[in-house]
Amino acid sequence: MPPPPGPPMPGQQPTPEQIRMMQQQMAAEAAKRGLTVPQYIEQLKAQAMQQHQAQQQMQAQQQQQGGHPQQQQMPINPGPPNPAAVAVANFLRSQELKPRTCLLDEKRKDMFRVKRAIRALQSPAYAKARSKNPLLPEVTDRASAENTFKLLPMSLLALRVSKIDPSVGHEGHGHAKPKRIKGLWTVRIEQHQDANDDDHYIWLYEGAQIKQKLYAAGALVLVIAVVMFPLWPLVMRQGVWYLSMGMLGLIGLFFVMAIFRLILFVVTLFTAPPGLWLYPNLFEDVGFFDSFRPVWAWHQDKKAKKKSKKTKSPAEASIAKEGNSTSTEKPTSAAPAASIPTTPAPAATGVSPAAGTPIQRKLHARVEEAEEE
Predict the structure, then answer these.
(1) Peptide bond connecting 83 to the previous residue in cis, omega within 30 degrees of 0
(2) pLDDT above 70 as % of the chain
(3) Could you tell me the residue range of the domain that residue 180 belongs to?
C-alpha cells in the first residue's frame, strides 16, 4: 500500500489528497474546541495578529536607551529619487569622503566608504547645512544616520559594490580578456544594499552639471557663430583672416625648424661627432617653454649609456663611490701629509708585500650621471 500523503513541501503545490487531509485535520481540531471550521480559522488569524503585534512592541522596547527611542532601521527598496535624497547627495558630494576611482562596466566611477559618509552626516557641518536646507533629514544617532544614508540607494544615487577579478569568467570565450589597470578596482553592484562601515559605494549621481551645461552652451554659440560667418562685419572677417594666416605661418615655421635641426644633426654627425641637436627637447614630453631649453646640446646615445652602466663591475662602482666620499670630505686636523706611513709599490719580482703593511692607493673622484627613468 502507498504511504499516506504528508504535508506539502515548502514552495510546492499541495495535491488533492493533501488538501483533503488538511481539511479533515482542521475539522477535527474545530470539533475538539466546539467551533465550526470558519470560526476556527478566524481564531487562528487573531492569534497570529496578536503574536506579530507583541513582537513589534518587544523590538520597540529593546531599542529604547535612556528614555530616547532610536529610529528603527528601515529596509532598502529602490524607487524614484526624492528631494531629500538629492539634498543628502549634494551635501555628501561637497564633503571630503576620500573617494577613489574604480571601474564599473569599463566606466570610471568615484567610490567611497560608508563610515566616512556616516561620519559626515553626524558632523557639525551637517547640522549647519540642515539649518539652511530643511529638506535634509534630522540625524540624532547612528540609526538615523544610516536611514539618512540609505536614501541614496533607495533613489539610485549611490549603490554598494564589491571588488572582483576582471579576468575571472572570461576563459574559453572568443573575446579577449579585459585589461587590468594597476591601482583601479574592478567592481560590481551588490544585490543587498547594506550600510556597514567597511562597505564601499559608488556615485551614480553627478550633481547639478553646471560646468557641463556652460561648456555645451559655449560650444553651441561657437558653432552658430562659425555658421553665421558670412554675416559678420567686414572688420571682423579681416581680423579672422589675418589671425588664421599668422597661425599657418607659425605652423610652417615649426616644420621648417624641425627639418633644419635634422639636417644640422646629420651634418654634425659626420663632421663633429656625436652630432649637435638644436632644441633637443623640442619633441620631448615637457612643457611649452621647456621644449626650447636648452638651445643646443650634443647627441647622447641612451642605450649605450645604460649598457655601460649595467656591465660595470661592483668593485669599480664601490671604488668610485669611495673616491667621491674622500674627495668631498674636509680634513679634521692640521697634520702634515708626510706623517702618513706609506710604502713603495713592490717591484716586479713576484714578492707580495707583508700582511698588515699599509699601501697607498691613488683614488680618483668619479662623477656618475643618474640614469633617466
Answers:
(1) no
(2) 66
(3) 83-169+176-208
